[in-house]
Amino acid sequence: MNVAVVAPQTSRWRDADRAGALLVRALNRYAKAWLITSVYHEGEPAADEEVLERSLGGYVALKEDPSGVPTIRVLSQRSLSGSISLRSFPSILRNIDDVLGFDVVVVLSSFWNGPEEVARWAEVRRSLAALGEARGVTVVYIPLYLPPPPSARSLLGASKLMWCALHCPRVIRAADLVVAMSEEEAEELSQYRPRRIAVAPNWIDEELLARASRPPPGELEGAEAVVAYVGPLEEDKNLELLAKTAERLSSAGNIVVAAVGAGGEAQRLKRARPKNLLVLEDVEPEPVMAKSALGVDLSSYEPAGIRVLEFMGLGVPVAVSQYNHASRLVRDGVDGVRLAQLGDAPRVIESLVRRLDVLAEMGAKAKERAPQLSIGRLAELILGAQP
């Protein structure tokens, strides 16, 4: 069985952009899967754009890609605001399909043009199949849908509402299966009358988490406890609040706050940091996560929240912003804490760290859920969607 996973771009740190490679890795244990995405990795070209422009089919297949999985990069563009769109994608997808012959096409994320372009391609493909001129195809849509918070810029919120009104109904009608991450997401998407909708917050890859057994960075040696954030070091992740949390924890003992990732705010965070805040840019995150007493995410907007699930899979409880999609999966006070008010984060995190025994109990309860959140279950759900 051949599967395409269509995603906006790739990333090592941003969850919504990690999702495509994670899913392809899991699907390749059961079938043959490719990641089809823009030219961008972490917002920068991952392939020679001139070669891509000259290509006959509008795409290049890369043997070695930063995503770490079989990847096909297609013609794409990025606006001044940073949003990514695919160019002439229905015809490019047709060209790729003529070579590889897809049985299933999965498209990820909301608020970009990939889902509507796949819907347009699927409509033509099904019309040809009805005439006996093409094989049938199963389309799966994973929206990673989270409305912007009230604090979001009005233009951002308005553009996302417009996308929902103009494109979401067509995309969902074109899908044989819609996969929601939470019950709340499924309920909201049900207004568009999907053919079938399933809730599957299954993004924990046990094989990747096995890296946690490797030694953590030496900078963490001797710490009484580690509080870790893993992800993009960007403005929307509220890193100033993370620094305030570290400052507050400096009086609670030998507590290290580790910010693991990369991004435009890394240098500023290093300059402004308290002594107990470590910025770790070029390390494997899993060993740091496993050593942590608490994982945190203070994002003002995070539509996927995969790192939160990975912390839980490693037996580490989490303190997570209500604007992180994974907060809907955290059992408040059982395997983590949902932060209703981000301004309270330093105080709440300090109170948790002063009770390491309680954190250990919460971590054990978090780890019990890991098998239920395995990405293998998501792969099986997708492959089982074929009629």
Please provide a written account of the structure.
- With 387 residues, the protein is an alpha/beta fold.
- It has two domains: 2-199, Rossmann fold, CATH 3.40.50; 207-372, 3-Layer(aba) Sandwich (Rossmann fold), CATH 3.40.50.2000.
- The chain is 37% helix and 19% strand.
- It has 15 helices and 18 strands.
- It has helices at residues 15-27, 49-54, 89-100, 114-130, 154-166, 168-174, 183-189, 206-209, 239-249, 266-272, 285-291, 306-313, 345-353, 356-368, 375-383, and strands at 2-7, 32-37, 40-41, 44-45, 59-62, 71-74, 76-78, 84-86, 104-108, 138-142, 177-180, 197-199, 225-230, 255-260, 277-280, 294-297, 318-321, 336-339.
- The strands form four sheets. Strands 5-6-2-1-9-10-11-12 form an eight-stranded mixed sheet, sandwiched between helices.
- Strand 5 (59-62) and strand 6 (71-74) form a beta hairpin.
- Helix 4 packs across helix 6 (168-174).
- The longest helix is centred in the N-terminal third of the chain and has 17 residues, at 114-130.
- 47% of the residues are buried.
- GO terms for molecular function: glycosyltransferase activity.
- InterPro entries: Glycosyltransferase_grp1 (IPR050194).
- Keywords: Transferase.
